[in-house]
Design brief:
Layout lengths: L6 E10 L5 E9 L4 E5 L27 H15 L7 H12 L9 H18 L4 H9 L7 E8 L12 E6 L5 H23 L17 H14 L9 E6 L6 E3 L2 E4 L2 E3 L1 H14 L2 E5 L7 H11 L4 E4 L7 H10 L4 E4 L1 H4 L2 H13 L3 E5 L9 H9 L3 E5 L4 H16 L9
Parallel strand pairs: 4-14, 6-10, 10-11, 11-12, 12-13, 13-14
Antiparallel strand pairs: 1-2, 2-3, 4-5, 5-6, 7-8, 8-9
Amino acid sequence: MNAPLRLADLTARTILDSRGYPTLEARARLADGTMLRAAVPAGASTGAHEAVELRDHDEAYSGRGVRAAVAGVHERIAPLLTGHDWPDLASLDRALAQADGTGDYSRLGANAVVAVSMLAARGFAHAAGLSLHEWIARASGARERLPVPHFNVLNGGAHAANDLEFQEFMIAPVAAGSEENAVRIGAEVYHALAALVRRRFGSAGLGDEGGFAPPVSDPRAALDLLVEAITDAGYPPGVGQVAIALDPAANSFHLGDGRYRINGIELDRTGLVDYYLGLLEDYPIRSLEDGFAEDDPGGWIALAGAAGGRVQLVGDDLYVTDPARIRAGFEAGYSDAALIKPNQIGTVSQTLEAIRTAHELGMACMISHRSGETWDPFIADLAVGTGAGQLKSGAPARGERVAKYNRLTEIELDHPGLPYGVQ
């Protein structure tokens, strides 16, 4: 039985995300005096079908201000939600969706709605006397699991000022056995990579997600750096050991009509599939995300046909955490995994439904941060509570990134015996 939630007051304010742009933090007080907070991230690389952030489009912050979203919390959301007993999160989230009325949260702003929904989830957990991940496990009907962290240690694409088309090059300590060991491996490889990049290029500039952004344009050169760094740190590169995961984010190098450009070379769908197959042959890659553009179903089908079963194929821009799109993609044979980002869909309830849908279909899930992150470690509890088994939150550096990884090791310390690893 869920304990009801009553918000005594609800406010919001502008804060800065990790890229220095404004985002929204929601704050509330419960009847017992407990204070709750939640902050929403923002993405640089976004899918066309994501829930819509509300931005001011005026002179402040180059048009990226969120004063209207903050005002909406004060003027529309707070009067709706405060002073009532909400029986469960689904009811509260439905009220938010009905108050917005657009289907994509473009009236209230997905940035305002998801922050309030995340805050409410924390409130329900408090009312039930549970930690957030425990409450999420109860709400989702899942078995808790500590996820394999996927550390984005080399940045490109929309996340870095270099000529590397692929957006994320990640390391995944699959065989770490525990969250503590996984974080140690991630940090040690990260620092080995830092030494390697400095030695080879003379500097170690960073991208949006804390990974290094060396002046390379060839994805193979980046992958060679990763394999060397893993080895220098004293670990075995391998799909079942310290593996590599890629997020090419193909929307950003799609030329249209099934044509793509990588490192100055134009490829058609068949050429791009062959390119990926070559990478899988030569490097220990366990996961490939957004290998084709969201509007290129022929490419997704071709890649699944050629590489399915050899590597995890993850849809991000393709699915945008939408249960209906995940189901349609599975039925079309696009991929066997979905990326999960709460602010893509709008509420925590919808996020849980997306994860539930994927798991019912036999698809894997990877919980994800955004390039513009905050102090809030909500997704760490989400990953554990839903038993997703995989989480990416950028490099093992910078406060907004390590907040998530540190939360995972805290959960492990407080709850010994939780299993670790990909399901």
